[in-house]
Amino acid sequence: MWEEAIILSKELAEQYENEMFDFEQLSASLRKQAQFYENIVKVIRPKPDYFAVGYYGTGFPSFLRVSIFIDNHFFSSLAVCMSSLFHLFIPLGCSYFSEYF
To answer: Which residues form the DOCKER domain (predicted)?
Structure first.
């Protein structure tokens, strides 16, 4: 996250210094770059939660069988993930989830 911003900031600083000769913008860009380095050290990064969800067996629709999806946007915990999948597939008659709920 911050590392990518530093790479782009260096490219921009090079443009300001060598091609545009805009030293005010160069100064602002270098201050921002320094802030990115400080953020790497000081800012606590949130730990993302990822869930790998695989659909195996004949109990699932054919378009999902033997598919694995990695999701990190919609579920805040494993319980929410399992509950969401339960409500999605039980109406379709999938027996796999009925073993867990």
So the answer is: 1-101
Q: Where are the alpha helices (DSSP H) in the chain?
A: 2-15, 23-42, 78-89
Distance CA 8, CA 11 (A): 5
Same-domain status, 8 and 31: yes
| pTM listed for this prediction | 0.47
Are residues 77 and 49 in contact, defined by beta-carbon separation less than 8 angstroms? yes
pLDDT band at 90 (very low <50, low <70, confident <90, very high): low
| Same domain? 60 vs 29 | no
Q: What is the CA radius of gyration of the chain?
A: 24
What integer is the mean pLDDT of 54-76?
A: 68
